[in-house]
């Protein structure tokens, strides 16, 4: 069974940091690009960061310089390191594999608030 399991979310103050993890099934991880998406209340889901199997990355403008996406092929896991968090980063964060664009995990809630 193909799986995506996100973790690491929580409540953090503005300016704080979090690291999100997404464990994926090997069949949808090894040779595929992976992405982190987020969906805030009342808004559409948006792509935040993407990393290819070769390690090439790209980011939405609003997180450039603050977020870093990485992947560990030995663990079939993709990470999102988030720093200098802002209230507008509050959302449910999801990971996704380009092998299965329509398949999503349960997501992990990130709340940035004082």
Describe the overall structure.
With 114 residues, the chain is mostly beta strands. Helices cover 0% and strands 46% of the residues. The chain has no helices and 10 strands. It has strands at 4-7, 10-12, 18-24, 34-39, 46-51, 57-59, 67-72, 77-82, 91-97, 108-112. The chain has a 6-stranded mixed beta sheet, with no helix packed on it. The protein is globular, with a radius of gyration of 13 Å. The N and C termini lie far apart (40 Å). The mean pLDDT is 96.
What's the helix and strand layout?
Blueprint: E1 4-7, E2 10-12, E3 18-24, E4 34-39, E5 46-51, E6 57-59, E7 67-72, E8 77-82, E9 91-97, E10 108-112
Parallel strand pairs: 2-10
Antiparallel strand pairs: 1-3, 3-8, 4-5, 4-9, 5-6, 7-8, 9-10
Structural class, by secondary structure, is mainly beta
Order the strands across the largest sheet as they lie in space.
2-10-9-4-5-6
Mean pLDDT across residues: 96
Q: What does the main sheet amount to? A: 6 strands, mixed
The strand count comes to: 10
Shape: globular
Radius of gyration: 13 Å
What's the short story on this structure?
The protein is 0% helix and 46% strand. It has 114 residues and is mainly β.
